[in-house]
Automatic annotation (TrEMBL):
Name of the protein this chain belongs to: Helix-turn-helix transcriptional regulator
Record InterPro entries: HTH_HxlR (IPR002577), WH-like_DNA-bd_sf (IPR036388), WH_DNA-bd_sf (IPR036390)
Listed PROSITE patterns: HTH_HXLR
GO molecular function, one term: DNA binding
Keywords carried by this UniProt record: DNA-binding, Transcription, Transcription regulation
Organism of this sequence: Mycolicibacterium hodleri
Length: 285
C-alpha cells in the first residue's frame, strides 16, 4: 500500500481521474507535471492496476487511461487527505477548496462512521489486533516507498505537503500507527518496528516539527493535529486490506467497542449524516 500511495503524483493523477480526466493531454493540462514524469507515473499506475490503458482511436493509435475499480475505490483516502490538509496545513500556495455534498447541497466535512451502527468513530472506540497475516515485521515494505527521481524536481506538485511526510515514508507511517496504539517511548518504537535508530530519530523529529507528535519528558504523544490523521490511516488500511489481501486472512483486525461488530469504515456527511459516494463530492472554490 505504501509503495503505491507513498507518491504524491500517484495520488494527484488518481484525483484527476476521479474528476474525469482520461487522456494524456488532460492530465498534462491539469497538473504541473513534466512529460517524463507523467509518462512514468501513468505506466506505473497501469502496472499497479489503478488505471487501464485503452485504445480510443485507431489512426493514429491513441490511448486513454480509465480508472479500474481498484483505482476508483481510492476516493475515501483522497477525501480524508483533502479534509486533513484543508484544516491542518495552512502553508498551501492557494487555500484548498471546501467540500460540497451534492446529495444535501451543503458544504460539509467527512466523518468516519461505523457501517454496522452508523455511529461516528474515533480511535478511542476501536480495539485493534493483529490478524492472521499481521505483524510489524511483515507489514513493513522491504524497501523504501517509491521515490521521485531527481528529474521530478522541476514538476513537483507540493499539493499534499504534510500528508507526504507520512504516506511518503514507510517509517513515518509505521510510527504514526504505533503511536495510535499507545507506543510512546523511543526504545518501544525501535523494538516494535525494527527501524534503524537514525531513521527513527529523523522521523520522530519530522513528525514533532510538523506538530503531529508532541515530545514531553522522553515520551511522544499524538497532538490534536496528529489524531486528526486517523481517517487517512483507516481509509488507507481498509483499501490495502481489500486490494492486497493475504491468503491466510487480514493483517489487522478492528472492532468497534460500542456495537461490538467488526469495524468497517464509512465516510459520511456531517450535515445530513448520509453515507458519502465519490460521485457526490465536489470542490467549491
Amino acid at each position: 500500500m505504501l509503495g503505491v500511495l507513498g507518491d504524491e503524483w500517484t495520488l494527484l493523477l488518481v484525483q484527476q481521474s476521479l474528476l474525469g480526466a482520461t487522456r494524456y493531454g488532460e492530465f498534462a493540462a491539469r497538473l504541473p507535471i513534466s512529460h517524463a514524469v507523467l509518462t512514468k507515473r501513468l505506466t506505473a499506475l497501469t502496472t499497479d492496476g489503478l488505471l487501464e490503458r485503452t485504445l480510443y482511436q485507431q489512426r493514429p493509435p491513441r490511448y486513454e487511461y480509465v480508472l479500474t475499480p481498484k483505482g476508483r475505490s481510492l476516493w475515501p483516502v483522497l477525501t480524508a487527505i483533502w479534509e486533513w490538509e484543508r484544516r491542518w496545513v495552512p502553508d498551501h500556495a492557494e487555500r484548498l477548496p471546501t467540500m460540497h455534498h451534492l446529495s444535501c447541497d451543503a458544504e460539509f466535512a467527512p466523518q468516519l462512521t461505523c457501517r454496522a451502527c452508523d455511529q461516528v468513530v474515533t480511535e478511542k472506540e476501536l480495539t485493534v489486533a493483529w490478524g492472521p497475516s499481521g505483524s510489524w515485521k511483515r507489514s513493513m515494505p522491504a524497501e523504501s516507498t517509491r521515490r521521485r527521481a531527481t528529474s521530478d524536481a522541476a514538476g513537483r506538485a507540493g499539493l499534499f505537503p504534510e500528508t507526504m511526510t507520512i504516506l511518503g515514508n514507510r517509517w513515518a507511517f509505521a510510527l504514526l500507527v504505533a503511536a495510535f496504539v499507545g507506543t510512546t517511548r523511543f526504545n518501544d518504537f525501535a523494538g516494535q518496528l525494527g527501524a534503524p535508530p537514525g531513521s527513527l530519530t529523523d522521523r520522530l523529529q519530522s513528525l514533532t516539527a510538523g506538530g503531529v507528535l508532541d515530545a514531553v519528558g522522553g515520551r511522544y504523544a499524538l497532538t490534536e493535529k496528529g489524531r486528526a490523521t486517523f481517517p487517512i490511516l483507516i481509509t488507507a488500511l481498509q483499501w490495502a486490506q481489500r486490494w492486497f489481501a493475504a491468503p491466510e486472512g487480514p493483517a489487522v483486525l478492528l472492532r468497534h467497542q460500542s456495537c461490538g461488530d467488526a469495524f468497517e469504515a464509512v465516510l459520511s456527511c456531517d450535515q445530513c449524516a448520509g453515507a458519502l459516494r465519490g460521485a457526490d463530492v465536489e470542490d467549491r472554490h
